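Fold sample X.
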Amino acid sequence: MARAAAASVCAFVFSLSLGVCLCSFAVPLKLSAGSYNVSSDVAVTRRVVPAADGDGLSLASDPSGTVNFLDMLNNLHGDHGRGYYIEMSIGTPGQKVNILVDTGSSNFAVAAAAHPFITHYFDAALSSTYQSSGRTVAVRYTQGNWEGDLGTDRVSIANGPNGTITINIAAILSSEGFFLPGVNWQGILGLAYPMLARPDSSVMPFFNSLVQQLGIPDIFSLQMCGAGISASSAADPPGGSLIMGGVEPTLYQGSMWYTPIIAEWYFQVEVLKLEVGDQNLNLDCKEYNMDKAFVDSGTTLLRLPVNVFNAVVEAITRSSLIQDFSSGFWDGSKLACWMKGETPWRFFPKLSIYLRATNTSQSFRITILPKLYIQPITDVDGTLDCFRFGLSSSANGLVIGATVMEGFYVVFDRAQRRLGFALSSCAVSGGEALSEIAGPFSAADVGANCSWGPAKEPFMWMVSYALMAVCAMVLIMLLLLLVLPCRRNRSGEITDESSLVRHRIK
């Protein structure tokens, strides 16, 4: 309320303070509304709680635990074009809804009113356990926004941890650009930290409540298996797995490589450099992390700061066997199409991202092959296969979205403040691996600190109030000048008739 009042007093101060206090979210599904121009089955059974091996890796090893990871296999549906979602039951009696899995935000929100793009919604009036908090909440993402009422209710996940928990729920009553045609989810599950929760960090996020109430380890992991699936396909096969409480070894191959979580708001990491094919972009490492770099399952593409994106496009153009691409392909406004049966991937280079390792003097490299970032979309009259570019420019940081995550099994180890990457067992197409991982490499050739930290919200609130207080004092002084009677010239001093103030206010 204080900020709103101050805004009416001094808009420019409010705009400045708001801009540095609020965070931007990324939401998925860069589905274009208009027309484009054409230019392993597991044989074992284990009931587990993660335990640490000699390298600190959480493994499924305790037969007496309470988290059944096998129940969670293939509990996700969707793909990078439509988002990855999980089925949940909300309320008493339970109402089944599909909820988008988003590691780039922190609110649990579900449609609570009809919308033309969703098939059903959560009816809070039919749940005997729903309790409204009397507070409203609004969240704006990179794409779309919604508004609704805060409340609590009971939630269970059939293919998740055993048990029912009470969580904070935002009942979405209105939205714009959030629910899109062709999606099959009715809400969003924010898995990031409380600092991103709205209206403030006192709203405990879903996973914090899950850990607190069921006692599972503070770790989850994601396998996203939609690589190579056309976003226009009507099929809805199993899209991957969200493992809550640990790591499932059958979902990855080879070694797990960890990078520190350098700030607990988004899952912020430190990117040291990018390569296109064998070309190092040779940018200052802070360019890659401006103003942050984070891992977000709710963002469709690999999003890069503008300077980095331009450098990547230039490097791909130099190394690609195709030199005459329309600029519309790179900015996402056009598709590139080939005759049906032709494959364009051989024309493009690999893309590599170097992340700082937990041993901060070292790094490791995650690499995606062209099949992950030159993405099939649709066909034209049954004669053309069309593809989009799986990268875009970003004004709010480097975002490692589904384009990259589909190549890896990603571990969000919140307990030890680190993210793990390993080759995903489903990132294979036609017998060919779609991703690579390698290391360790020396980080001596980059800066000791390449990252930008998050704005400290309590501190920025103080700055905001201080600026607004100064603005209010200035306004009071101006008002006094307006209402005080003007004095006549008694001794030759400057008077109302000759002052600049008079001519400025009339």
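Fold sample Y, listed below.
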Amino acid sequence: MSIRRLRNNPKTLEDVNMVTEELKNFYYKRLLPIEKYYLFHHFHSPSYEDADFDNKPMVLVMGQYSTGKTTFIRYLIEQDFPGSRVGPEPTTDCFTAIMHGEAEGIIPGNALTVDPRKPFRNLNPFGNSFLNRFQCAQLPNQVLENISIIDTPGILTAAKRKLSRGYDFPAVLRWFAERVDRIILLFDAHKLEFSDELTRAFGALRGYDDKLRVVLNKADRVDSQQLMRVYGALMWSLGKVFRTPEILRVYIGSFWSEPRRTCDHYQLIELEEEDLLADIRNLPRNAALRKLNDLVKRARLVRAHAHIISYLKQEMPTIFCKESKKHNLIYQLPVIFAKIQQQHRVPAGDFPDCTKMQERLLGQDFSKFKTLKPSFMASLDKLLSTDIAKLMPLLQQQELKKKALPGTLDGEFLGTFRPACYKRDPFKEISKDDESSEKDVDEWVVEKYKPKYDEIFYSLCPSEGKLSGAKVKEWMVTTHLPNSVLAHIWRLADVDCDGMLDNEEFALAIHLIEGKLEGHWLPRELPSHLVPPSKRLCEAEDE
């Protein structure tokens, strides 16, 4: 018996690959020549590569130190990863890309930037000071087969703001923000301190608000009155930093696999957890849509950039007073933006940040700029208005083919106690090659504790020797383990998948709960020595 694996629908894969290949074709043949012609990469982000289109969805996890970033990641993937440390002090001092691999190991940053299969080649400009603090942790994990996670160093508080990291931290965050599918920003309910570095980090995320999800973590450690005050203070502070009338959604939770403290808002925490996990769970399904959205956003920025560069070229004198004219044009850049808006009907939201553009223009040679090329602009307009629109039907078909991530993120876990969700797991095979496993098959490790577990079983008044899901759930929630963890245990314990537990299956469930309470990781597949004796014959017949 095991957790259901994520089996990809071949037709869905074909649709996703088709959309991805078309996006590559549009970028390399239509957009990239315009970027090179107008020196787009000197002012904005580097060009895309194949890995940027082919990579799995990525989740960037960030926040101040000791807000639970690494613990949150361990909660998602349900295991430790190489190089992870947890503690109240700043324990994560580097960027770590947690990705799927056949064997556990760590790849250093410099090696990552030369691997064409990884989407990190364009991190080279940040230099050795950053690359020495960048690594990739690879491990075999079902969740990581579908998404990758980026763990970040804890953002420094006001007391440590004078310390230098040795590299441009906000610029690195912005590089990742442009390429990831989701940004999880964690806050600790016990300490809401908006330091200078945190404010600069918010500045780096500006323009990517649609990817941002704010989490108020460790909410079970405060009472309801304190939570209300902390939540209000966080919303007020976020409103000041982002300077927008729209209010960011803040998820309230306690994201770890240990028992939660009893509190008045316990049910709220469970509901918020389900909402956030559902959002992350949909990332693989929406990966192609996100890539299309990012390509459109980039194309609109390229169009605005081309108009800016060509205007500056036209205004430059041929021979005399070039330097003074250059500085005058840079100073008048806001006015130039307004003129381009009126003349070419380019939306104001498509223009880059004016201050940053002025800074980058100071070091440029305006004589190398090119004038507006009508064929390029016509090609770009056709790409935005017609070509990309033709891909939407494929994306809509893909939306109908829902996928779920395994492990904690498996959507069926959250509905485990609904009869419609009981399905036979397809991969319960246990290796029979090892002769030393014969003893495990003969002995059931739960047997010696079963008399104690049977007392609890019969106190719940079973019907015809079995307990319904509702009765089991009512008892399980008293352990204060998260619902997703309890649902995982249910799926492991309900060996015959009938939606009910007999005395052996219930004993197995309690055994797994006790193991979890002692700090052990739950198995992804039920080991042979944990399969109840009465169910082993049924499994052998099925095989």
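Sample Y note: Confidence is low (pLDDT under 50) at residues 1-15, 407-441.
Also: The longest helix spans residues 287-315.
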